[in-house]
Amino acid sequence: xxxxxxxxxxxxxxxxxxxxxxxxxxxxxxxxxxxxxxxxxxxxxxxxxxxxxxxxxxxxxxxxxxxxxxxxxxxxxxxxxxxxxxxxxxxxxxxxxxxxxxxxxxxxxxxxxxxxxxxxxxxxxxxxxxxxxxxxxxxxxxxxxxxxxxxxxxxxxxxxxxxxxxxxxxxxxxxxxxxxxxxxxxxxxxxxxxxxxxxxxxxxxxxxxxxxxxxxxxxxxxxxxxxxxxxxxxxxxxxxxxxxxxxxxxxxxxxxxxxxxxxxxxxxxxxxxxxxxxxxxxxxxxxxxxxxxxxxxxxxxxxxxxxxxxxxxxxxxxxxxxxxxxxxxxxxxxxxxxxxxxxxxxxxxxxxxxxxxxxxxxxxxxxxxxxxxxxxxxxxxxxxxxxxxxxxxxxxxxxxxxxxxxxxxxxxxxxxxxxxxxxxxxxxxxxxxxxxxxxxxxxxxxxxxxxxxxxxxxxxxxxxxxxxxxxxxxxxxxxxxxxxxxxxxxxxxxxxxxxxxxxxxxxxxxxxxxxxxxxxxxxxxxxxxxxxxxxxxxxxxxxxxxxxxxxxxxxxxxxxxxxxxxxxxxxxxxxxxxxxxxxxxxxxxxxxxxxxxxxxxxxxxxxxxxxxxxxxxxxxxxxxxxxxxxxxxxxxxxxxxxxxxxxxxxxxxxxxxxxxxxxxxxxxxxxxxxxxxxxxxxxxxxxxxxxxxxxxxxxxxxxxxxxxxxxxxxxxxxxxxxxxxxxxxxxxxxxxxxxxxxxxxxxxxxxxxxxxxxxxxxxxxxxxxxxxxxxxxxxxxxxxxxxxxxxxxxxxxxxxxxxxxxxxxxxxxxxxx
Amino acid sequence: xxxxxxxxxxxxxxxxxxxxxxxxxxxxxxxxxxxxxxxxxxxxxxxxxxxxxxxxxxxxxxxxxxxxxxxxxxxxxxxxxxxxxxxxxxxxxxxxxxxxxxxxxxxxxxxxxxxxxxxxxxxxxxxxxxxxxxxxxxxxxxxxxxxxxxxxxxxxxxxxxxxxx
Lengths: 817, 165
Fold this sequence. Notes:
The complex is a heterodimer.
Chain A: H1 22-26, E1 42-48, E2 54-60, H2 62-66, E3 70-75, H3 76-79, E4 107-108, E5 114-120, H4 123-130, E6 134-139, H5 146-149, E7 165-171, H6 176-181, E8 185-193, E9 196-197, E10 205-211, E11 216-221, H7 226-237, E12 244-247, H8 263-275, E13 279-282, H9 285-291, E14 294-295, E15 298-306, E16 312-322, H10 335-343, E17 353-360, H11 375-393, H12 397-404, E18 413-414, E19 420-421, H13 426-437, H14 447-458, E20 461-474, E21 492-498, E22 504-508, H15 517-530, E23 536-540, H16 557-584, E24 591-594, E25 597-600, E26 603-609, H17 610-619, E27 633-638, E28 644-657, E29 663-673, H18 680-699, E30 730-735, H19 752-769, H20 783-793
Chain B: E1 8-14, E2 17-23, H1 29-36, E3 55-58, E4 61-64, E5 77-79, H2 81-84, H3 93-100, H4 110-123, H5 129-135, H6 147-164
Parallel strand pairs in B: 1-5
Antiparallel strand pairs in B: 1-2, 3-4, 3-5
Helix pairs in contact in B: 3-6, 4-6
């Protein structure tokens, strides 16, 4: 179904409703972390490590403390007395991490690690005074290459661990050796995605207010998971959980990066506790690029065993993941690598698979989850293998996919790594994509395309088309994290209150992160309760006010918050009908609520508005029998499914300028199936934003650490983000295959664009380059890498060493302990 | 030469209202607007002039609030996102277009885009979609992929042409 035709439906779910979040943001009245400043607020700045790996041999804060306007300077010595340590240890066998603390204790392990916090009358004074803190560093050998870090005898990032191996595991089942032994063709690729980061436009920050009288802490943060931080901060800082209040209003982008416990945010809270005054810290962009969690630092060697007709017989992968200096609490440094290993088979029938993962500890900022978590590298590896296989076998890229994609009759399908795809449109989404692309579905391969390529060539450009089919983990259950010991569940609560005038307040346990969750929830409540959308107000992000929620992550909020909202609305609706039944002397089963009015079936003239009922339920209770449950405030709950996978297909069309090596994305298409669409505009927005980030990763974004572990891309002039002219208008189509396992048939949608785009763009580039016999294997696909590949294919070698990372090899990765 | 910490007087007009204050010479216009005047709609995304979130108008021209000192605005007229719609609660026509096309998600970059786009369309209501992309390439959005922003600005430009014609 094409969503463009779906502007009007019976209910609110499915409509392209304008977002309730927007007017106050548009008017400049949004409230982001830095927009609130309490009375008597002090301002903090951090002294951060300028080196990647060193022992702190001396630390002198005296001069900074003497500076005019400075109130305090704290180091680990002071903060460790009131704050515990943490590490992101999910219950994966063997997962190891160094201890993290608010401030570096004894040594520093990455550039940007906080060493001291300076608190002053103003931010400018604090920043000036931070330069007066004197730190002597005795430098140690920096570990920048994860493969080197894993070699025997390497310097250790954390001496107490005895190894730089954070985690190692093998995933998959089936007889892989037999599959490869019996293959007609074996195709192998080695590739990498570059370390990059979310770059939320609103930097992280914290406004902490400690009240010594009640020993209570209020912290305003830009976070995806307020309740998780409430629990964690209480534990770390020795406070009663009911005395910790986390507030988050607008979140200026997060993308997974704001779902963690951060040392600088904890240190800001600890400073407020020590000083008994509000303390604000707002990250600047250099701090963000150095200390926000990073992602996608994956090196992969993968091989596929094929029958002569292109049928996949088996798949193998070696994955080396660079986890950075610490395993982030609570999601850990290994979730990305595990997802790379387990998602790789994707929407394809892969009878045998073995994926071997190692996660290294290095002297870089911690690696954690970022939109798509592991999907982009996994999908890239699989889709690159399929394109190379198609070239090898002389098959059309669409045809080799068609032959291997899961068919409708095979659903539900359990993947070779144990993932259950409850439903989907794996074949159909590809066919729809091809129809949009304009290539003949069953005709001779690429006939129109060959003509376009020839025309582009005449303009000095290499044109290529890339496909990528995907499945994506959404709304995972408690098994993902909570069952492994993290303060992360899958259970969400939503409270719905009908006020005495009939207006409705919805309190979401999980906040938004800018994607329009308030609107989505209001649409669900409008339908489930039977009230007009306009009468609903939505609140989230204050742990003192809203019921419990586990936060917005893993494309879960539409599924689980939506489900919890529906659950609450159904109970409230039942109570309204029961009250109405009493007032109208009718059987509640004969009543219905629509557009805010209760009507009796078969008697259209009898009508009672929700407002009248609410007024009676609040203030005229004398009209109701005492045994009736008349409280129109209900907390609904929903645990969601174990997981539900969305699916879809992407196509990118690129043109490469042969002289400059610049890659231009000239067309981009996406077919997305996230089950029931609550608001197609919001889903489209998620896809566009995700694809933009995916194109960024494929072509531009790279956190470049030099051989000393220094981050060279520490400003937005060096760390390249796509701007408007780099991105095409997307063509998006939707399929709606409802999940049988979620309350509303909804599947998550937030990450699918980011998941598929790097593979589609990369395949398009290699399709273009294959015209001159060249390929590129490493992202970002910079002009330099493109030109070098073109020259080398023409037999012109470059004297400089190639700008590519070392790659894992099959069978050579012995565990180092 | 004045010391960096010694406050200097500034008088300026912000969103049509006269304002006077004493600020340290190193105070940026963005910090002054946000922290002295409480106009927190102007956002700081990089404090280095790259991201464009802090874009405001100084005597009608778009400037980076993070690269302009408050003392440089002495005697000038400044317009911020809070001034676009006037005093009522109604949205400015471009804000309406942003709402209609969902040209914002997290909204942090939005004030800068609004100010930059209002100026761009004022200067040239004949902007094509590609020209809108180019004109707004000094503003970074991490959420939308820009398409809906271009939709909103292009439609606003088209309507401005009709009004002007």
